[in-house]
C-alpha cells in the first residue's frame, strides 16, 4: 500500500468535499492505513458509565497493538460528532470507532472519513457507511430482561416502559420486550414514555407515569440508568413493595443496585462495551491485513444478571 496522505493533502480532500453540495461519486478515495497506529473513539455521552467502559476497552486494545487513543464525547449532539470526525480526519487517524448519536445523520461525515482513507467501525448501534458494526444482540437483551420481569410478576399485571432516544439499539430492545409480551397475554402496558437514556430523565418520566397510573406491578427500563431512575421514582412513590424493575446493561451501578437489600431492581440483561471496542479494533486490523469480516454486523450475546447470580457476574 502507498503511504497515508499528508495532513495538508487530507485537508484538501475534506475542503473539496465540503464545497461540493453533491458529488458525482467519482471522487478517488485515499488508500487505507498500513497499520492501526492511532484510534479516534467517539462516544455518545461520557457521563454514562457505559461509555467510560468503552474507553477502557479502547485503551486496552490500543496498548496491545501499540496505538494511541483520542476519545471525544458528543454529549448526544450530532453536530458535535460531525465536527469530531472532521477533526480526526485532519489529525490523520487510522481508525475511527463511533457510537453514533444519529445513525443516518452521521453518514456524510463517515463518508468523508472513508474518502480520507480512515477505517470506520460502529459500536453499540449501527452507523450508515461504517465498514462494520459491533453491537449487543439488543433484541435478545430486551427479550431476556422482559421475560424475567414477566416471570417475576407471575405472568400478569400492568407495566410501564421507560424508553429512550430513537437509535437502533434502543428500538431493538423495545422490540425484544414486545416479542416476549406476545407470550404473556396477562401483561398490560399502561404507560410508555421516552427518557434521555439517563437516571434523571428516567426518574422524571417514571414519576409522571406513576402519578397517572400508580396501579402497576412492573417497569422495564431500556437501559440501566433509566431503570435506576425508575427505581428511585418507585421508592419516592412508596411503591417498593408493589413494583419491580428490570433494565439492560449489566452496569456497575446496576450490579450495586441488585446487591442492595430491598431494592425494586431485580434484573438486567448484559452488554459488554469494552469488548465491543476490542472487537472493533480487531476487525480494523483484519481489514488492514486484507481480511475484512464476512459479516459486517457482529452481535455480542446478552446474558441475564439477577439477585441470584450477580455474585458470579464479572461486570465491566
Helix content: 40-55%
Global morphology:
elongated
Largest sheet: 6 strands, parallel
SSE sequence, one letter per element: HEHEHEHEEHEHEHEHEHEHEE
Number of strands: 12
Look at the helices and sheets and give the structural class. alpha/beta
* Beta-strand residue fraction: 15-25%
Termini distance?
38 Å
Low-confidence stretches: 1-26
Whole-number mean pLDDT: 92
Strand order of the largest sheet: 2-1-3-4-5-11
Question: How many DSSP helices?
Answer: 10
Q: Radius of gyration, Cα only, in angstroms?
A: 21 Å
Task: Supply the key terms.
316 residues, alpha/beta, six-stranded parallel sheet, six-stranded mixed sheet, disordered N terminus
Any overview of this molecule?
By secondary structure, this protein is an alpha/beta fold. The chain is built from ten helices and twelve strands. It has helices at residues 7-19, 49-65, 78-91, 107-115, 138-152, 168-181, 199-212, 224-236, 252-259, 273-288; strands at 38-43, 68-73, 95-98, 119-123, 132-136, 157-163, 187-194, 218-221, 244-249, 265-270, 297-300, 304-306. A six-stranded parallel beta sheet has the order 2-1-3-4-5-11, sandwiched between helices. A six-stranded mixed beta sheet has the order 7-6-8-9-10-12, with helices on both faces. Helix 5 crosses helix 6 (168-181). The protein is elongated. The two termini are 38 Å apart. Mean pLDDT is 92; it is low at 1-26.
Amino acid at each position: 500500500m502507498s503511504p497515508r496522505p499528508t495532513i495538508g493533502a487530507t485537508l484538501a480532500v475534506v475542503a473539496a468535499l465540503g464545497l461540493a453540495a453533491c458529488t458525482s461519486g467519482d471522487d478517488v478515495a485515499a488508500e487505507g492505513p498500513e497499520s492501526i497506529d492511532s484510534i479516534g473513539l467517539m462516544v455518545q455521552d461520557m457521563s454514562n458509565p457505559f461509555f467510560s467502559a468503552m474507553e477502557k476497552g479502547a485503551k486496552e486494545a490500543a496498548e496491545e497493538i501499540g496505538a494511541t487513543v483520542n476519545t471525544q464525547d458528543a454529549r448526544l449532539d450530532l453536530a458535535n460528532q460531525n465536527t469530531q470526525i472532521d477533526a480526526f480526519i485532519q489529525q490523520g487517524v487510522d481508525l475511527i470507532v463511533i457510537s453514533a448519536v444519529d445513525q443516518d445523520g452521521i453518514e456524510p461525515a463517515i463518508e468523508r472519513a472513508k474518502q480520507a482513507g480512515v477505517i470506520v467501525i460502529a459500536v453499540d448501534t449501527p452507523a450508515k457507511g461504517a465498514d462494520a458494526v459491533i453491537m449487543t444482540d439488543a433484541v435478545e437483551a430486551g427479550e431476556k430482561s422482559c421475560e424475567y420481569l414477566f416471570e417475576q410478576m407471575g405472568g400478569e399485571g400492568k407495566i410501564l416502559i421507560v424508553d429512550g432516544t430513537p437509535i437502533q439499539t434502543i428500538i431493538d430492545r423495545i422490540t425484544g420486550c414486545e416479542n416476549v409480551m406476545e407470550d404473556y397475554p396477562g401483561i398490560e402496558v399502561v404507560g410508555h414514555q421516552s427518557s434521555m437514556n439517563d437516571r434523571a430523565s428516567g426518574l422524571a418520566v417514571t414519576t409522571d407515569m406513576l402519578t397517572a397510573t400508580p396501579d402497576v406491578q412492573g417497569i422495564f427500563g431500556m437501559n440501566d440508568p433509566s431503570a435506576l431512575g425508575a427505581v428511585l421514582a418507585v421508592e419516592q412513590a412508596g411503591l417498593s413493595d408493589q413494583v419491580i424493575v428490570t433494565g439492560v446493561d449489566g452496569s456497575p451501578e446496576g450490579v450495586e443496585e441488585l446487591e442492595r437489600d430491598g431494592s425494586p431492581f431485580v434484573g438486567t440483561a448484559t452488554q459488554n462495551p469494552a469488548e465491543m471496542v476490542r472487537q472493533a479494533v480487531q476487525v480494523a486490523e483484519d481489514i488492514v491485513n486484507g481480511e475484512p469480516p464476512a459479516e459486517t454486523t457482529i452481535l455480542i450475546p446478552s446474558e441475564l444478571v439477577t439477585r441470584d447470580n450477580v455474585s458470579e457476574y464479572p461486570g465491566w
